[in-house]
Structure formats: structure tokens, C-alpha cells
Amino acid sequence: MAKTAPRKLLSKALTGIRGFDDISLGGLPRNRTTLVMGGPGTGKSVFALQTLVGAASRHKQPGIFVAFEENIDAIFTNAAAFDWGLPALERKHLFFMNAQLSPSFISTGDFDLGGMLAMLEAKQVEIGAKWVVFDGIDVLLSLLRTPRAKMREIYRLRDWLTRRELTSIITSKIDGEGDGTNTASYGFMQFMVDCVVRFDRRMEQGIPVRRLEITKYRGSSFAPGEYPLSFGPHGMEVASPGATDVAQEASTERVSSGFQGLDEMLDGGLFRGSCTLITGAPGTSKTTLAGLFTESACRRGERTLFVSFDEGGARVRRNLRSVGIHLDGHMKSGLLQMYSGRTDAVNAEEHLLRINALIDEHRPRCMVIDPLSAIARTGALSSARAIGNRLIYKLRDQHITAVITALVEGENPQAEATELQISTIADSWIQLSYLVCGGERNRALTIVKSRGTRHSNQVRELILSNSGLALVDVYSSGGEVLMGTLRWEKEAEERSRALVRETESGDKRLELQFAEADTSARIAALQLDLERQRAALALYKRDDAARHVSSGEHQTEVRRLRGGNGNGHERDRRGK
Amino acid sequence: MATVMSGIAVASKRVKPAEKTRSVSTVVTMRLYVAGSAPNSVKAIANLEQICRQHLKEAYRLEIVDVCEHPRRALDDGILVTPSLTKLSPSPGSNIIGNLSDTSSVLAALGLPVARRE
After folding, report:
1. Which residues does chain A have within 8 Å of residue B98's beta carbon, measured at their own beta carbons?
2. A255: which of A78, A175, A332, A505 lies 20 to 30 Å off by Cα?
């Protein structure tokens, strides 16, 4: 590869070490030399050997391991803890050279690596090796008496590696007590190589924490900073944060929290891909809320991962069954996977790596961690915080909707600020608490924050029963929140008062109805009179008219009968 | 580093097999591994030859192996650095690394009296 274009972009070779290929942006420089340095027991040799094993098993690239410090048998015994299948690989692709200079060797003057390199060259040609590891070069260099000789051999080594086009890893121990010449040769070594990885092991609150840092990478950028590492069944894993920026798509899709009352408070549910933090004292139903979320996710047919700490999956399911949440069926169908971690056995870093592995394996859309605060117990708080953050970022990157619970102990109001400080990066924060009043402890639920959501700012009472959870509005009276029995009393009082009000108003209504009816009746009666009077009047008018007409007719008739003429009338009058 | 041979013959060869000597000491058998004409290797050969002349007279058998030419053999013999001298007999055997410039150490390692000088 180097033959084609030496000026081309640097070619890299993947190490296959989970996380390291991320922070090195693609692995180690191909056909070049990487120096791995660190104190004893920091994982240098495992790093080198695992890289060699990865290249051999995945890419069928043969490699040579030169062991200056450790006996080959010891290396094989240590490697047996991992699922590498080293003995089989050795037969096919790997060559191990036992290069411990036994104490019986007597040094009688200057020496060099010329012969060893000639031997390795022959071996490289024989097996077609692409990789070589020099493990513990410091042991060899310490036998060289002058700094000049050390530098000469380092140069010889690098020159040979370059000429042979080998991708190489040189590990070297550094301990604090290195003398001046040592430091000089290490400085020189760092200058000679293209990539430097520094390993470190520290005690943090009684728990050893291993880290690595890339301090140099010629011709390439890399993720700066220290990254914790741990050892799992597949070997070393480096906790890389993955994507370094926080550009994530923001979903507007709502996902039910599995609890109608809460969905209503959250204006429709949780955002898809969001992270909800539920904090609370022991026994405030955090797990129940998490269980509801899990059940509803499984009902929607979404793959779900339930991580519980310090309590086995079976126990969690049994406890949830008692409040009407049934997860066994979803376990059987494979939708739901549960993982339980013991926090006394493993440090936080390893939990994170295991959870990451589970996410990659199960590919969940929804996830629960109950409680995340447990990992804060497993060692240094600062590293537990970093782990909490990394986990949440990972979930966001994968667009997993997550519910994370955290235990808050103590009664002080400051306890709201969770120890892990994940509340700042969680999208929603639901706080569960006990309110003690009237000699009772009652559960209360508050939404402390919910990004991008018009959420209820009310405290609700959370009622747990065999049929499940319910949220009830609480009474606040005289600035005090009433819950439990007090709420019930208040409610009863309100009810009776309402009853009184209702009765009173009923009476009034009836009374008014009577009055109305009375008035109506009276109106009807008067109407009747009116009708009668009108009828009478009409009748009277008609009689009158008739009388008038008939009297006229009568005079005419009388006149006619009297045989008189027009003045008959007067006659009549006279006659009277 | 160079695999080019210089004027000094350092290919695998047997040098000066000798049996008859004034002293009663048995023959010392040694094998010197060198890397071509690398400075340390050249020095080692010169130093060893002088030591043998001065301290062993004819009573030694030396084999010089050029690792650059016989790498497999050196690998099988468990050689790591060059130059490297192995005392094969009489027992106890010993392993000496370096260019053999520290004469007294070489003599001590070969089991020869250090003080004696000629």
C-alpha cells in the first residue's frame, strides 16, 4: 500500500478494539509504528496482542509477537480469559518469539538488534506477516548501557520496520522512577514513531480506573482526551463517546409513557428518542412507572431493553405483576430483553460497555435503566457522572426513547439535584416524592421539566393499587397541598358542601317553579277572564247594533202600519 | 545491519580445531552468533579471537554463525541479540551477550582464571 503513493493520505489499519478505532478515527497508522506506553498492569500488552489477534482472525493477516517481558506461556494463560482462540490462531497466523533475556545472560559490552531483526525478517517472509508487536521494549533497552546505544537501536528498529512495511506496535513500560537517560530515550522514541498511545491506571476511591489517551498521531487527527477502558469477554474495550457533536434530529413524534395520566400532564406523551429521568426516594413507584413504559412499548411491538441494577429481571417482573404490569409474554416473544447488573462486582465503566454491547445486540427502540444511580455507587462519582452522560448521548445517537430512574436519598431539597447530574441533559425530569402530612406519607408526582412540551406544573398525587397507577389532582388549601386521607376528607367535605348547595338550589328552583306555575296559572285564569270579557263585549256590541237596526226598522214599520208619511214620527210624538 | 560480507570471514565455519596443548584443561567449545559485518559483531570476533589466543592457546573450538545468513538456526537456538556467545562445553554452559570488550567478564563467564596474564 505504501508502495503505490507515499504522499497519499495516511492509510489506517483497524485494531478491532471496540472504541479505540473510533477515537483514533480508523485505527493505527498502516505500515508505521505505534508506541504504546504506560505503567505496569495498564493493559499495554493486551492492547497489542488483541490488535494482532483481530488482524489475524478478521483479515487473515499474519503477525509476529516478540515478547521481551512476559513468558509466552504466561501470555497464553492471560489470553485464555478472552474468547480469542489464541492457540488455533497461533498455528495458522501468529508467531510468538520468546525474547526474555534471562538473568543468566552475562553482558560483556555493547550489542545490537541486528541479528534479531534478521531472524524476524526471515520469519516475516516465511509467514507473510503484516503486523509485528514488540512487547516490553524497555526490558531490552535497559540492557543497553549508554543513551547513545539505546537511541541507535531504536533508530535501527524503526528503520527496519519502515523498510519491511510492517504495521507495528511497540509497548514500553514507564514507571515513575525512570532515570534521566530513560526519559531521554523515551522522548526520542516518541519522536521516532508515528502514533503514541499512553495507558494509565489510577485508583479512584478504591476502584482502579484504567484509561488511555492518544498523545500523538502524525498525519491524522484523533479524539483528544483520556478514555476509560475495561476488559470484557472479548478483550479490551475503550469507552468512546462515539459521535463528538450533539447534532441530533429532534423528533416531534409522541410516544406514550404507558400511563395516561402522565401522558396528559406531558401534553401527549414523551418525544420519540428523548430521555426521561424519573427521580425519587425509595418506594416512590419509579420502577412501576418504568414498567408501564416498558409494557406499552412492547404492546406497540417495539423492541425494548430493560436494565436493572441490583435486582434480577425475574424479581422485577414479579413485582410489576403485582401492580398489573405483565412483561413475561414480551420476554418470551423476544421483544423485551432484561439485563441485571450487580453494582458491587463491576465498575461503572464495565456496566456501560455491557449496556452498549446489549444495545448493539438487541437494537431496542425503547429502553429503561432502573436505577442509573446505582452505578454511582460503583466507584468514583466523577467517572460515574461521565458514564451517565455518555450513556444518554449514546441513547440519543441511536434515537432510543429512554426512561431512566435515579434514586434520591435524604429529605433535603438539594437532593433534587441528582448526584449524577444527568438531570441537565435529560429531556424530561419527573420527580416522585413523599409528602408527609396528617400523619401519612403519600406519593406525589411533579414534572420538573420537559423540553419542548407544554407540561402541567401541578403536583399530582400518585395512587398505587392492584389495578395500577392513577394520578389525582391534589387539593391545595391555604397554601398547603392535601393528599391521602386529608385529601379524602377535604373531598368528602367538599362533597357534602356540594350536596347542601345542590339541595338548597334545588329547593329554590322548586320554589321558583311553584311561583312560576302559580303566576302562569293566574295568567291563564286572567286570560280566561279576558277572553270571557272580550266575548261579552263583542256580544254586547252585536246586540246593540241589532237593537239599533231593529228600532229603525220598527219605526219604519210603525209608520208604514200607521199609513203615515215621513212626518209620522212627529205625529207619533205628538200622540204621546 | 548490512548483510554484505566484509573482508573478515564470518560465515559459519569451524576455526582452529586443536587438541594438543600444554595445559591439562579440556577443550572449550563455543558458538558465536554475529550479524554480518555490524560493528559490534566485528568487534566481538576480534575480541574473542584475542581472548582465545591469550587464554586458551589452542584448546578451544569456536563456531561462528552469521544470523543474517542462518536466521532459522539462530531462531531455533533462541538467540535474541547479536553478538551473542554461547559456551557449549565443558559444563556449566553460559550465555554471554555483547561485543566481548569486557575481557574479565568474558573470562569469568567462560570459567577461565581472570587474574592470569601473559
Report:
1. 107-111
2. A332
Q: Do B35 and A102 touch (CB under 8 A)?
A: no
User: How far is the C-alpha of B17 from the C-alpha of B61, rounded, in Å?
Assistant: 5
Chain A residue at shortest CA distance from B42: A111
Report which of A369, A366, A372, A360 is spatially closest to residue A339, judged by C-alpha positions. A369
From the candidates A64, A71, A108, A150, which should be mutated to test the interface with B, based on the most B CB atoms within 10 A? A108
CB neighbours of A198 closer than 8 A, spacing ≥ 6? A37, A38, A212, A213, A214, A215
Which of A155, A81, A148, A75 has the alpha carbon at shortest distance from A114? A155
Q: At a CB cut-off of 8 Å and minimum separation 6, what does A474 contact?
A: A444, A458, A459, A460, A461, A481, A482, A483, A487
B26 touches chain A (CB under 8 A): no
B59 near A CB under 8 A: no
Task: Give the predicted TM-score (pTM) of the model.
Answer: 0.59
A419-437 pLDDT, tens digit each: 566 667 788 888 888 777 7
Q: How far is CA A200 from CA A42, A51, A205, A209, in A?
A: 6, 19, 16, 8
Residue pLDDT, tens place only, B65-117: 999 999 888 888 888 888 999 988 888 888 888 888 888 888 888 888 765 44
Q: What is the rounded distance in angstroms from the CA atom of residue A413 to the CA atom of residue A417?
A: 8
Compute the nearest-CA separation of A160 from chain B (Å). Answer: 9
| Whole-number percent of chain B with pLDDT over 90 | 14
> ipTM of this model?
0.77
Sign of CA dihedral A377, A379, A382, A385: negative
Mean pLDDT of A190-204: 85
- Whether the CA torsion A436, A438, A440, A442 is positive or negative: it is negative
Poorest-confidence range of A311-315, A325-329, A401-405?
A311-315
CA-to-CA separations, A506 to A518, A539, A552, in angstroms, rounded: 18, 48, 68
Of A98, A107, A156, the CB nearest to B1: A156
